[in-house]
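The protein record now logged underneath.
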Amino acid sequence: MPFSNDHLSEINLLALFDSSSSQEGIKVHQHSADPAVVAAAERLYQKGLISQKDGGYLTPLGAEVAELVQKTLAVLTSDASDPVS
């Protein structure tokens, strides 16, 4: 099953978090952010990955998922002749 546009919006939003720090959150401004980003934040909140429907902080599960997103992004953006360990 391929990623839907909603999944990609959620993954992109999770990629904005600093997964190495639980002290840094993000704020999605409801009136000025892209509607897809606003909706992604609300879905991530409903899934228990972030602390507030407009961003906030990663929950413990959210931190785990954000770390996996970062690792996946690192692998996908690496040079094929230089594998990521």
The chain has one domain: 5-71. The chain is about 50% helix and 10% strand.
